[in-house]
Design a protein that fits this description.
There is one protein chain. The N terminus is likely disordered. This protein is mainly β and 306 residues long.
């Protein structure tokens, strides 16, 4: 009899233990789970790298975003442009940095040229700009239609007057090039008359609202090919550059002219294949008729042209 009672008691204890364990497991709080969007955001935040600025006013292309700073990296503002649009067209250079001269970043103006459209053949060229250090942005259409952009440059000489120089539709060593100007601070743009030159453009720009230059020839040049205007691009003419005999086929590429005292000056370099004095020496030429004719002044070393 005692054995029967002991057996029944043992079975009851076992059942009680099973019930107790089941109850404890059923009352445990399940682990919290992040929803998918929150989890992806947290992972994205972890993957983003801290941004660093070299200068007080600077930009960054890290984390697949164009961002600007005005306090040497303490705070950053995202520019609402897809990074790929800044490099669209005939460009195969370093995409870790913005294309030289394709943007302006100053206390009073942040501006970025970009191409926007369905493909390479026919895109809008737009200047996105801010006058309040990135708090508000505006888009100005420079041109509604432009094929396969290669060279691009934007600059403002004063608050209202600025220019954009573009080239595109390149075929071998030929391309189209166009100059656009604004007289209202970038709100609207108008195209100047064409220079009708189809060589590949090296550089260009204006030194004042009337006087501008376009320099051509980047593939095996044998002499400088500089065009100038004195009427804001209504007409263009080839500048006369008098190269001394000893520098023929040595100084072959004109850079962008600049104002110096009471005249204009320009450096003419040796092109991609120059080997005179190591290939880095340039010729300095001066003009006293606002860019129509140029006379040799002196040789200059690379560190003297900075």
């Amino acid at each position: 009899m005692n054995k029967i009672i002991l057996g029944i008691t043992s079975v009851m204890v076992i059942c009680l233990i099973i019930v107790l364990v089941f109850y404890q497991n059923s009352t445990k709080t399940p682990p919290l789970k992040l929803d998918q969007n929150e989890a992806e955001q947290n992972q994205s935040d972890q993957n983003e790298q801290a941004l660093y600025a070299d200068q007080t006013i600077d930009y960054s292309l890290q984390n697949d975003k164009l961002q600007i700073t005005y306090d040497k990296g303490k705070s950053w503002t995202t520019v609402p442009i897809e990074i790929g649009k800044l490099f669209e067209g005939d460009f195969s250079g370093n995409k870790q940095e913005l294309i030289d001269n394709s943007y302006i970043l100053s206390n009073n103006l942040a501006a970025f040229l970009y191409s926007d459209g369905p493909g390479l053949a026919d895109n809008k060229i737009i200047l996105k700009y801010s006058l309040d250090q990135g708090k508000n942005w505006q888009d100005a259409v420079v041109t509604e239609h432009y094929p396969s952009l290669r060279f691009r440059k934007v600059n403002f000489l004063e608050e209202n007057f600025g220019y954009v120089i573009l080239s595109g539709d390149r075929t071998m060593s030929q391309e189209m090039s166009n100059v656009f100007v604004t007289h209202d601070g970038g709100i609207s743009w108008s195209e100047t008359n064409s220079s009708n030159v189809t060589r590949l453009i090296l550089d260009g720009g204006f030194v004042d609202e009337n006087t501008g230059f376009l320099s051509y020839g980047i593939i095996n040049p044998d002499e400088p090919d500089l065009y100038m205007t004195q009427d804001t691009g209504n007409s263009w003419m080839k500048a006369n550059i008098n190269i001394p005999d000893q520098y023929n086929e040595i100084f072959v590429q004109a850079e962008m002219p600049f104002k110096e005292e009471d005249h204009l000056a320009v450096y003419i370099n040796q092109g991609p294949n120059g080997d005179y004095e190591g290939g880095k020496v340039k010729g300095k030429f001066l003009s006293n008729d606002n860019g129509k004719t140029w006379e040799f002044s002196t040789e200059v070393k690379p560190d003297e042209t900075e």
